[in-house]
Write a structure and sequence with these properties.
Strand content: 15-25%
CATH topology: Aminopeptidase
CATH architecture: 3-Layer(aba) Sandwich
Helix content: 25-40%
Shape: globular
Largest sheet: 9 strands, mixed
Order of helices and strands: EEEEEHHEEEEEEHEHEEHEHEH
Structural class: alpha/beta
CATH superfamily: Zn peptidases
Number of helices: 7
Number of domains: 1
Distance between the termini: 54 Å
């Protein structure tokens, strides 16, 4: 291949209003991008923006979610055989995409009384010599409650929306960044267990990383993104909206308003009820949960009918693709532009 031109710019064309976000990528390591499932060489004599549209594919989202929310995994209760299968699936995806363990293995183990739980952690080092020492965490919980009240003979609470949907999003973004090498900062892709037992997995990991004194810039937890909000509502909501300028900055990076304020978030104490909260407690940095669930658009919370066939895969795929320039803008900002607000 000819020498790649010194500065490769990836332009993301957002469907909303045709807006365009310019993101700098690593000129030393990116030689190919995947577009429409075909590899296209980028040559130095073609000095045009490489445009990635619809990078994440619906079929990949559907395949992963249907497995993680299948009866075979028995509701992914922490300590069960089903969650072990989910952990192996996540580990294999990391291995296949050259995403390294952050610790000795992908697993970060802990105990909840007599139950052994484990978070699954993937690590992608940043390419910028300075910024790679700063970390961004993208997370979701991959456990669920196992079983719930019987409905028509079904007792398995598959947890498709809660939170196989968020888990799949983190896995798809892990695949994206591993291919494009477009992250100046280092990224931890963190999938938690024992969330349903009171944020035990994320609490353990936050404490462990704090003791290691990592330089954590931001943490985002993705929770229940499997169904869309009403057409007149902003696509997703951010818990603890007023605590930082994260929503404003993500929308700026995305080139459209995809993250909004949810008036009832404080009433429902959403900021403290998801896996972002332990990181906020330990690090006091912008740590939020993003969701497309608003208590009006999904009736099957902790219910046996929280199944893959209730998910809107077009919505999920669209959300994941729209978030790419937002995440890339945050991960590659030259300074820590996302900051806590004074309360």
């Amino acid at each position: 291949m000819k020498k790649i031109f010194s500065l490769l710019v990836v332009a993301f064309m957002m469907s909303c209003g045709g807006q365009k976000q310019i993101i700098e990528t690593n000129p030393d390591s990116i030689e190919k991008i995947v577009q429409n499932n075909e590899e296209t060489e980028i040559k130095s004599d073609i000095k045009k923006d490489a445009v990635i549209e619809n990078y994440i594919k619906l079929k990949d989202v559907k395949t992963s979610l249907e497995y993680l929310a299948s009866d075979e995994l028995e509701g992914r209760n922490t300590g069960s055989k089903g969650i072990e299968k989910a952990a192996i699936y996540i580990e294999n995806l990391f291995k296949e995409n050259n995403i390294k363990p952050y610790f000795k293995t992908y697993r970060d183990s802990f105990n909840v009384k007599k139950i052994i739980g484990y978070n699954v952690i993937g690590y992608l080092e940043g390419y910028d010599p300075r910024l790679k020492n700063e970390f961004v965490i993208l997370g979701a919980h991959y456990d669920h409650i196992g079983t719930a009240k019987t409905v028509n003979g079904d007792v398995i609470a598959n947890g498709a929306n809660d939170d196989a949907s968020g888990t799949v999003a983190v896995l798809e973004w892990a695949k994206y960044f591993s291919k494009t090498k477009s992250n100046k900062r280092s990224i931890l892709f963190t999938l938690y267990s024992a969330e349903e037992m009171g944020l035990k997995g994320s609490g353990h990991l936050a404490e462990r990383l704090k003791k290691m004194n990592i330089d954590l810039y931001t943490m985002i937890n993705f929770e229940m993104i499997g169904v869309p909000r009403s057409n007149h509502e902003i696509m997703a909501i951010l818990s603890g909206y007023e605590k930082s300028n994260m929503a404003k900055k993500l929308n700026s990076y995305a080139g459209s308003e995809i993250i909004g304020f949810f008036p009832k978030a404080k009433e429902f104490q959403l900021f403290m009820r998801s896996d972002n909260y332990p990181f906020y407690q330990e690090f006091k940095v912008p740590s939020h949960a993003i969701s497309t669930f608003d208590f009006t658009n999904f009736d099957y919370y902790h219910h046996v009918d929280d199944e893959a066939d209730k998910m809107d895969f077009n919505h999920m795929t669209s959300f994941m693709n729209k978030m790419i320039p937002a995440l890339e803008g945050m991960i590659n900002a030259p300074t820590k532009e996302i900051k806590m607000n004074h309360e």
